[in-house]
Amino acid sequence: MLIKRSALIPPSEITSKHRYVNRREFMQAGAALGAAAGLAAAGLAFPRSAHAGIKLPDLRKSPLSTSGEALTPYKDVITYNNYYEFGTGKDDPSETSGKLRTRPWSVAVEGEVSKPKVFDVDELFKLAPLEERVYRMRCVEGWSMVIPWVGYSLSEVVKRVRPTSKAKFVQFISLADPEQMHGVRMPILDWPYSEGLRMDEAMHPLTILCLGLYGETLPNQDGAPVRVVIPWKYGFKSGKSIIKIRFVEEQPMTTWALANAREYGFYSNVNPEVDHPRWSQAKERRIGEFGKRPTLMFNGYGEQVASLYAGMDLRKYY
Ligand SMILES: Nc1nc2c(c(=O)[nH]1)N[C@H]1C(S)=C(S)[C@@H](COP(=O)(O)O)O[C@H]1N2
Ligand SMILES: [Mo]
Question: Structurally, how many domains does the chain consist of?
Fold first, then answer.
């Protein structure tokens, strides 16, 4: 088979991953790899179906990765998901997102910028060197994973559009296509899924524009073809399948704050001391492990990000 062993995936996980991927997906991946090789001269070009994941070449390992923690098995990363556009069950996204069309795809970067631009997603693959970033991911529901994301700092995109002095916040808007996404046909959330960051959070090097995981393009259920990942915040801040990045002057409304402002604040920094109104956040269950481990302040990224919140009451700005 053409899928090569990657140095970043421990052999045990390669085995479980390969056992998981079914034969048809293997065939698609193989054909896609062939096509990708043939199109190398034209840059990175991917076929419409990227469901099985297309190997991404030339990944450098980021020094910003967490180290010393086992990666969550690939199978769990792609079958235990929250992606309400494809249903509210953890299995729903992997079972129902297979036909999402991820090409053509573009991301419009607009608002308070002096150089607004619509980026074709294949352009985003070439904008900056792709890195492997191993981050902890903590869902507000109380579970966590360790995922080897692929991407680069979102600041790479931001600096190219030149935000104006009025740009104080950034909004990330996901695709909401009722024809492709059965969840969007129902009033589960206020669609499109919309999230936001303060400008300094968006510019922080840990915040990534994410194009892949486990050395391959993103599976649909994890937010193909492009998403953001903000590792010190609860997972819902990291919007999937984004089509728009908008720079704004006022703090934007977010989907989860609209659903329940008391439970989901704009900041949503991982914090073991600030409980969700309906449950404690002191501990978490790492997917694949038994028992619980303590939740880390800022999900363990406090050294890098605590200064962003100096002087702020984190109980008030939850
Ligand atoms: N568009 C969109 N983005 C989303 C969600 C969603 O329902 N829709 N769920 C969020 C939540 S609650 C979590 S925990 C993470 C899960 O990302 P993963 O499935 O890749 O681990 O995606 C976030 N991004
Ligand atoms: Mo979540």
Answer: 1
Q: Kindly report the CATH number assigned to the domain that includes residue 225.
A: 3.90.420.10
What per-residue confidence (pLDDT) applies to 233?
98
Task: Ligand 1: list residues with CB < 6 Å.
Answer: 81-85, 137, 139, 174, 193, 222-223, 235-236, 238-241
Supply the pLDDT for residue 48.
42
Q: Give the residue, 41 or 152, on which the prediction is more confident.
A: 152
Residue 117 domain-assigned (yes or no): yes
Q: Which atom of ligand 1 is nearest to the CA of 93?
A: 19
In the reported structure, the alpha carbon of residue 142 is separated from the centroid of ligand 2 by a whole-number distance in angstroms of 8
Q: Which residues surround ligand 2, an ion (CB under 5 A)?
A: 82, 139, 235-236
Is 314 contained in some domain? no
Which amino acid residue places its CA nearest to atom 16 of ligand 1? 82
Residue at 142 is within a domain: yes
Report pLDDT for 52. 56
Which helix (H) or strand (E) segment is 213 a member of? strand 208-213
Ligand nearest to the CA of residue 174, numbered in listed order: 1
Radius of gyration in angstroms for the set of CA atoms belonging to the chain, rounded to a whole number? 19
Residue ranges making up the domain that contains 48: 16-309
Residues contacting residue 119 through CB under 8 Å, at least 6 positions apart: 106, 107, 108, 109, 127, 157
Question: Does a structural domain hold residue 318?
Answer: no
Whether the link from the prior residue into 225 is cis, omega within 30° of 0, is yes
